[in-house]
Specification:
By secondary structure, the chain is α/β, with parallel strands linked by helices. The protein is built from ten helices and twelve strands. The protein has a six-stranded mixed sheet with strand order 2-1-3-5-6-4. Strands 9-8-7-10-11-12 form a six-stranded parallel sheet, sandwiched between helices.
């Protein structure tokens, strides 16, 4: 009997990762047997870890923080999405080549459009944050043809650098805490503020009655961004649990050539993440 294909999710820290459960649930939909393991890997050890994994015949690896940008420089071929973001979260072998993609952005778009029912077309979008998470989503967000994308970040230089990735698109920069001329239809929190319980410096005037507020982070309770959004009057507020599942589904498709049903896995994780 053939051994099941082996996959890893690598990051530091990694204990909290839901990826093994998600991918095993996907595999069970097709009665597939896979081996998917958590691997704690530091930036300094990433090159050695990747070389060893490839030599041992690994079928695929997902990368999470803080390895996505470092991994970009260690693979042979990049997808358009990975090249745009200059960060990768999914790799696999094709012959002798290590191939890569970044599924974060398409995971976000699918969660918004398929699960939440929010179309990005012709919408005014504010991206809070200009680091790796923002780079990962910007390309797929722009592919949906919003009327305007505005970037705001604590360091203006990083906002300018992010906007420069799409010089032919309508991407503008708003200073951190600056008043916007008009409210936004969608606010995406790509900062790490929720991890430390801090609120974003976004003016309340950025929100109108129908503004959707979406935090790429998620937790057992409302994130600080979600609490802020409700406090300033938003009624459509979501976290990144659906994005987590949808980006994993895209990675599963890249590895296996079949697309899983994400709805039951999202519902399972929502039940698991309800506070005790």
């Amino acid at each position: 009997m053939a051994k099941p294909k082996r996959f890893y999710v690598a990051g530091d820290p990694i204990k909290h990762s839901q990826s093994p459960m998600i991918h095993n649930e996907f595999a069970s939909q097709f009665k597939m047997s896979i081996e998917y393991l958590k691997m704690e890997v530091s930036k300094n050890d990433l090159r050695q870890f990747l070389s060893k994994s490839v030599a041992e015949g690994i079928s695929g690896i997902n990368f999470t923080l803080p390895l996505k940008e470092e991994a970009y420089h260690l693979v042979d071929k990049h997808s358009r999405r990975a090249a745009f973001a200059r960060a990768v979260n999914t790799i696999w072998m094709s012959g002798e080549d290590v191939c890569s993609d970044n599924t974060d952005g398409i995971g976000l778009v699918r969660d918004l459009e398929k699960n939440i029912g929010v179309s990005l077309g012709n919408k005014r979008v504010l991206i809070a944050g200009a680091g790796g998470a923002a780079r990962g989503i910007l390309g797929p967000v722009l592919d949906q043809l919003p009327s305007l994308v505005t970037v705001t970040n604590r360091t203006r230089e990083r906002s300018v650098s992010l906007s420069a990735l799409a010089p032919k698109k309508n991407v503008q920069v708003l200073d951190w805490g600056e008043e916007s001329p008009e409210p936004f239809d969608l606010i995406l929190n790509c900062t790490s503020l929720s991890l430390s319980g801090k609120e974003p410096n976004i003016k309340e005037s950025s929100i109108h009655k129908g503004t959707v507020c979406y935090d790429l982070s998620y937790g057992h309770d409302l994130t600080s961004f979600e609490k802020w959004a409700f406090r300033v009057g938003a009624t459509s507020v979501f976290n990144g649990l659906g994005m987590l599942v949808e980006q994993a589904a895209e990675a599963f498709y890249l590895w296996h050539g079949i697309f899983p049903d994400t709805a039951p896995v999202i519902e399972m994780l929502k039940r698991k993440n309800i506070p005790d």
